[in-house]
Design brief:
about 130 residues, 7-stranded mixed beta sheet, 4-stranded antiparallel beta sheet, mainly beta, 11 strands, about 50% strand
Length: about 130
């Protein structure tokens, strides 16, 4: 089993920044692809960003491009999401996820169903 624990959420004013962390334990998640999704009240879960297990491939959803950066520290089994220029529409619960090497990952990274493990989520609230 793999346990994922998010942290770093909170309340921030529009234009501010936050850095989310997702610490993993259990199986060798260092070889797992990792991602961030978010879900706002009344909306479907939305892909935010992903990083391959090698760290060489990063992908972003349209809402994250140019403002968010995903990175991973393999030694710490931790993935980060640096969020800048936050907007009220970024308000959501942010979830991290881990994929145990889907063979088509580079084309399916934004599909939530391919991820095997999920964290409990961390709330991000952006005030206007």
């Amino acid at each position: 089993q793999v346990q994922l624990v998010e942290s770093g959420g909170g309340l921030v004013q529009a234009g501010g920044s936050l850095r989310l962390s997702c610490a993993a334990s259990g199986r060798p998640v260092s070889v797992y692809n990792r991602a961030w999704f978010r879900q706002a009240p009344g909306k479907e879960r939305e892909f935010v960003a992903a990083v391959t297990w090698t760290g060489t491939g990063t992908y972003y959803g349209d809402s994250a491009k140019g403002r968010f950066t995903i990175s991973r520290d393999t030694a710490k089994n931790t993935v980060y999401l640096q969020m800048t220029n936050l907007k009220p529409e970024d308000t959501a619960v942010y979830y991290c996820a881990a994929d145990s090497r889907d063979r088509y990952y580079t084309s399916r990274y934004s599909t939530s169903s391919i991820y095997d493990y999920w964290g409990q989520g961390t709330q991000v609230t952006v005030s206007s």
